[in-house]
Each structure stands twice: as C-alpha cells, then as structure tokens.
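Posting this for the archive.
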Amino acid sequence: MSSSSPVTPPRLQGLGPIITPDTRIVVLGSFPSVASLASQQYYAHPRNQFWPIVSALLGLSGKDDLRLQPYATRLDTARAHGLGIWDVYAHCQREGSLDSAIQQAQLNELHRLREWAPGLKAIAHNGGESARHMRLTQALGLPVVKLPSTSPANASWSFERKLAAWQTVFDEFGIGPPTTP
C-alpha cells in the first residue's frame, strides 16, 4: 500500500557566524550545502569557488592557497583579514543543496551584525537567495552589495568573472593582501 502524502524535507540547522569585533566585511550566503553541513564547514563543496576566490583576493597561492589549508587555518586567515562569514538562514527544510529547494526558512539574527562587529564596513550577499534579504541588511545603515554566487550551481559565470566582481568589493572595503610601503 502506497501513501500519497508528500514527504516533508528534513529540518536542518545552519552553521554559526564567523564574525569578530574586527570584521570589516561579512559575506552572507543563503544556507550551507549538504557537503558543508556534513563537514560542519562553510563552502565545503569541492566545486564551490568561495575559497579559491578568497585565496586569489588575498594573494595566497601555492602552498598558502586556502584550499590546501585545514579549515581552522582558513577561518583564522579570513578573520585576520577582516572577513566574516555567515548565512541569512539559521534553519530550513531542504532536500539536496539547491537554494530553490529551501522551505520554511528561519532567518539568522542579522540585526546583531553591527553589535558583534563594531568595525563592520559592508555586507556582501553571496548570490541571489541571500540577496533577497538585502532590505534587512540595508536597515543596518551600511553599504550592502550583491555578489555573484560562488556555488557550482552558478555555472553561467566563469571563475574570472566572479573573481573580478568580488575583487571590486574587496578592494573598496580594504580586504586583500597586505600592501608594502
């Protein structure tokens, strides 16, 4: 005997904020992928371009490339450069990793960003689903930008095109490799 009732997707818990008082820009994704939730690491899917883009923007290559570093080192490096990482959703129901499958989402406490990061200069939404909540982040009185998603689902943008868009924002808010006098 088969049941015709729809299957409810699982209720998922997101990851905590990677934000310090010295955070100058916070990148807000939508919600962690299946790979990220399984490993409890932001942007853990091997084809997600977040860490390769951040490595390039920070001038890290070769053995220093963040993709080759343990996750704790990636986070330490991000924090040291004033980069915060979080998601707009704290919980949701979803099958798979696509943003289009997100249901019953509950927002994170985005209104607390300035409290947690008094040095915050800007908020960057990583992709369209995150950017749907720009109205909330704009209420914080900071510059808010929408960046092209680093997700492998955003295949219409090349790595180089994404990197150029992210470079503009990182340069504007002083996130990048140290400059030598």
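The beta strands are 11-13, 25-29, 83-87, 89-93, 103-107, 122-126, 144-147. The first helix runs from residue 34 to 39.
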